[in-house]
Amino acid sequence: MTEVAPQVVPIFATPFGLASVPGADALNPALASLLSQRATPERADMANHQAHTFQSRPNLFDWTEEPVSWIRTGLIDLVSGFARSINEFSDEQFAGFRVQARSWFTIVRPDGCVPSHSHANAAWCALYCVAAPQVAADRFDSGVLRLHESYRPSMFTDATNSATQLPYRPGHSTWRPVPGQLVIFPASIVHEIALLRGTGELILVTAIMRFLAPGQTGIPLW
Amino acid sequence: MVAPNIRLTPQFAVPFGEAMLSPCEPLNSELEKLFLAREHEEYRNPTPSHIPQQELFESRFNLFTWPEPCIRELRQFVLDGVTKTMMAASTLQTHDLARLTLHNHTWFHVTRHAGSFISHNHPMASWSAVYCVRSGDPVPDQPESGLLRLFDPRQGAGAFRDPANAQLKPGFALRPLELRLAEGQLIVFPSYLFHEVTPFFGRKLRITVATNCWFF
């Protein structure tokens, strides 16, 4: 047998960004406190009501308080950097884009979750962890972000295509929220926050974003 | 100007079969009793495809080889349902079917409070089915408790939404199908469909039987 090693490259890859937001240690406690105080029925998004989970209306980035201004700037900067890194726009081109974002916060309490969903009319979804409880000993997947594998390239499996190594391994992708960390992924990917077990609350800020090129038309309203 | 006479048809449609066993209670009572008696290590699936939860018991995949009369009755109902769905959805004829052997992997789930099953599909099978033995009790403030959610296979197709595609009729709509199974209900669907069971918050038991089928 010839010793020829083929070149193997991932195709159809999905970008997934992970970052630590500068200043999180200093501002997260104030942000957590503010969001907890404002998790009130009049600020809830009743269209996404879940028992044991509070989700605010998607106007968080309109708030003027310092911790919200900080996270708005941090998220937009990081998502912009992420979007730049996977494209080939010049500085001038990128500077001409108009950023649109909608944001809300979610407080997941024990036995709460965020069901599987995706976001229409947006390019990117960013999820920032403000606070997270201890990992539940009895449930490995408590409170994780689960990004769904939404299709399999083949319904035929054998020993060599069902247990491949990353980045080819079939299956969902998960991220355990860590305070101060942010993840970015395509908004069209179905995702969920798995059931939170144990004690404590998971506080998340979500932003969906899109970048409009000069003169771009046909963008549906949010 | 001539007004177009549009003929609208579903294309790329997903076949979905449904049947009710009626009456189902005598059989379901026997099944429940049998499953609960065998809800232990000897009968547990030793190679689960997903990391198991303590709130959900999954049996070995050989349920339809059990000799008990209640299992044989269920087997007949479920596999007949799969075969009829397959025949209705395909161009196979009765004489074609006679040359085929139906193979299956079949198991039962017992789900308790906070149990769920993450999204998955079933490679190496063509048709899957779920039969509901016990639906579990509804939870008034948690309408999504214990739903079987079948995901739309056209992932990404709904990422652009405007008023003209946001309210498509059933069959055309780009959204998951969410089912609260009733006791005695059988559903049949292609094995390629991703599906999940949402967290169940009832205090009673949710018991289902699932099968994957292939024909050679």
Question: Quick gist of this model?
Answer:
The complex is a heterodimer of chains A (222) and B (216). By secondary structure, chain A is an alpha+beta fold.
Strand content of chain B: 25-35%
Uncertain residue ranges of chain A: none
By DSSP (H or I, 4+ residues per run), the number of helices of chain A equals 3
Averaged pLDDT of chain B:
96
Cα end-to-end separation of chain B:
55 Å
What would you call the structural class of chain B? alpha+beta
Query: Could you give the count of β-strands of chain A?
Result: 10
Main beta sheet strand tally, sense and closure of chain B: 6 strands, antiparallel
The residue fraction in helices of chain A comes out at: 10-25%
Largest β-sheet summary of chain A: 6 strands, antiparallel
Mean pLDDT value of chain A: 93
Order of helices and strands of chain B: EHEHHEEEEEEEE
Spatially, the strands of the biggest sheet of chain B line up as 1-8-5-10-3-2
Q: How would you characterize this protein structure?
A:
The complex is a heterodimer of chains A (222) and B (216). Chain A is an alpha+beta fold. Helix content of chain A is 18%, strand content 25%. Chain A has helices at 24-37, 66-85, 91-95; strands at 17-20, 53-55, 98-108, 114-117, 124-131, 145-147, 173-175, 181-186, 191-193, 202-212. Chain A has a 6-stranded antiparallel beta sheet. The longest helix of chain A is centred in the middle third of the chain and has 20 residues, at 66-85. Chain A starts with 16 loop residues before the first strand and ends in a 10-residue tail after the last strand. The mean pLDDT of chain A is 93. Chain B has a 6-stranded antiparallel beta sheet. Chain B has a 4-stranded antiparallel beta sheet with strand order 4-9-6-7, with no helix packed on it. In chain B, helix 1 packs across helix 2 (69-89). Chain B has helices spanning 25-37, 69-89, 94-98, and strands at 17-20, 56-58, 102-111, 115-120, 127-135, 148-150, 177-179, 185-190, 195-200, 206-215. The model of chain B has no long low-confidence stretch (mean pLDDT 96). Chain B is an alpha+beta fold. Helices cover 18% and strands 28% of the residues of chain B.
